[in-house]
TrEMBL record:
Cofactor binding mode and count: Binds 1 Fe cation per subunit.
Keyword match Nucleus: no
Protein name as catalogued: Pirin family protein
Domain Pirin N-terminal: residue ranges: 41-141
InterPro entries in UniProt: Pirin, Pirin_C_dom, Pirin_N_dom, RmlC-like_jellyroll, RmlC_Cupin_sf
UniProt keyword list: Iron, Metal-binding
Pfam families: Pirin, Pirin_C
Needed co-factor(s): Fe cation
One function term, GO molecular function aspect: metal ion binding
Species of origin: Streptomyces alkaliterrae
Length: 321
């Protein structure tokens, strides 16, 4: 997934100073952002109110969109550094191509995980023969400094572990939840899970007290620790919780996202995560010059040019405003 903003802000995120050390309720609304030719997403991170949850640094929710007579998602080849991308669907398909030569259709409740590391390029599109509806989330995980120059890689996992109890069903996308561990590669302590709550469900999920968490509403109106979370909104929960009460009066679903607060400060601009202005400037120059990122073959269109760098120096803003 790409940030297609032609004038992206440069953000410094991370650090523990402004992590909510105690349980909180901070409801965040998604900002509408156009993506490609016919898709609009709701951007939850980075948000004016919060910039990271654990190592999770970018969250888009989209759909359900009726694309029966539309091309659907069409994101041309674009670069990434210093992060992992997570593709997660409830409906539809996304065809992934990358500069490693990967070609994979990701379907609902399958994990598409791309580690950018030092540099990768990829495209994402709805296949020509696609389902009527497209609904899902695209997320980024910041890589810690020790691993941000790792070799790029792509993983596809169609079987993921489940946690059940009290009527809920949680698919563990990344990390570990209640003893169930995803096969997806991680580089910092975190968790991502998709939680299905049939109508009438009242249950509790065990949490790690040292993690900070957020709940992203995917469908219906799940009630998270007493707070209704509509689809396309996200409830930041802070740290210090040993369990999370969940309830649904009608069929609902959410994504539980969390992790150990990310200690390092990162610089995030366009589709790059680095540690300094120079990191970002070098990545942009290499992409524009056709160096380092390789080529994505098979996409019917041209690659995305990088926007201009901001004229002003990066301004540290921390995890919250």
């Amino acid at each position: 997934m790409s940030d297609l903003d032609l004038r992206p802000d440069a953000r410094v995120c991370g650090g523990r100073a402004e992590v909510a050390a105690a349980p909180v309720h901070e409801l965040l609304r998604g900002r509408p952002v156009p993506l490609g030719e016919s898709t609009e997403v709701r951007r939850l991170l980075p948000n004016l109110g919060r910039r990271m949850v654990g190592a999770w640094c970018f969250i888009d929710h989209y759909g359900p969109d009726d694309i029966a007579d539309e091309p659907g998602m069409q994101v041309p080849p674009h670069p990434h550094t210093g992060l992992q991308t997570v593709s997660w669907l409830h409906q539809g398909q996304v065809l992934h191509r990358d500069s490693l030569g990967s070609l994979q259709t990701v379907r609902p409740y399958e994990l598409g995980l791309m580690t950018a590391g030092r540099a990768i390029a990829h495209s994402e599109e709805s296949p020509r023969d696609h389902d009527r509806y497209l609904h899902g989330a695209q997320l980024w995980v910041a890589l810690p400094d020790a691993h941000r120059h790792t070799d790029p890689a792509f993983e596809h996992h169609h079987e993921l572990p489940l946690v059940t109890g009290g009527g809920l069903r949680a698919t563990v996308i990344l990390g570990e939840l209640d003893g169930a561990r995803s096969p997806g590669t991680t580089y910092s302590p975190l968790v991502g899970a998709d939680v299905t709550l049939p109508g009438g469900t009242s249950a509790r999920l065990p949490l790690e007290r040292d993690f900070e968490y957020a709940a992203l509403g995917m469908s219906g109106a799940p009630v998270v620790d007493g707070v209704p979370v509509e689809a396309g909104s996200m409830l930041y929960l802070g740290c210090g919780r040993g369990e999370l009460p969940l309830r649904a009066d009608a069929d609902s679903s959410l994504m539980l996202l969390g992790g150990e607060p990310f200690e390092e400060k990162i610089v995030m601009w366009w589709n790059f995560v680095g540690r300094s202005t120079d990191d970002i400037a070098h990545a942009r120059a290499d992409w524009q010059a056709g160096h380092r990122f390789g080529e994505v073959h098979g996409y019917a269109g041209t690659r995305l040019p990088a926007p201009d760098l901001p004229a002003t120096p990066l301004k540290p803003r921390g995890r919250t405003r």
